[in-house]
Amino acid sequence: MPEGYDKVTAARYLHDADPHLRAHINAVGPCTLTPTPDTGPHTLFDRLASSILSQQLSVKAAATIAGRLRGRATSDAQLDPALVAALSDEELRACGISRPKVAALRDLADAVRGGRIPTLGELRDYDDDEVISSLTTVRGIGRWTVEMLLIFLLDRPDVFPVADVGVRRGFERVLGLDDKASPAMMLDHSAGWAPYRSVASWYLWRAVDQTGEAAPAPTSSS
């Protein structure tokens, strides 16, 4: 399916669609959401493996562990599934990777090498739900992880990750809510933001950034 959409058009649409977002967009300014490029043959594996490694860890700890693994299993400047698969459990554990994450990395490497999940090129022709259902068959890959892939790699315009803590907190701030927003409430209200809920999510993240509050990402079960 076609990728890429105009962020200026999306922001203008959201600005006109919702008075709560309008005030927030005016305060934040232009959307600078820029998808990360497909940089080589292992982009999909690299992104998903990095997501597995970062689950339930601080940014600093995850970067340290990922750096150790990259020192052992990188080709073309990316994590290589064949090189990761060739490492023993002891070598992976020596990088600081927990046993559950070792099992998840092995399942991901097996899925990529064996064609159990689509290639990145094939995923570009899938709709959002098909991408989610395909990739969440891998151990340790949940819906939230794939939604981040849809927004930041596949550049899909209408992704709304209601399980993301930052999106929920931003939603509550922008709408001026005193109580916690439920996923059902968020989905219902966001219907008016379609088909540009990825950009709406970006603006909701900015609402949390402005407070200086760190919003943790969901765990692998999300």
UniProtKB/TrEMBL annotation:
Keywords: DNA damage, DNA repair
InterPro entries membership: Alkylbase_DNA_Glycosylase/TA, DNA_glycosylase, HhH-GPD_domain
UniProt keyword annotation of DNA damage present: yes
Residue stretches making up the HhH-GPD domain: 53-209
Enzyme class: hydrolase
SUPFAM superfamilies documented for this protein: DNA-glycosylase
Molecular-function annotations in GO: alkylated DNA binding; DNA-3-methyladenine glycosylase activity; DNA-7-methylguanine glycosylase activity
Matches recorded under PANTHER family: DNA-3-METHYLADENINE GLYCOSYLASE (PTHR43003)
Protein name stated in the entry: DNA-3-methyladenine glycosylase II
Species assigned in the record: Dietzia maris
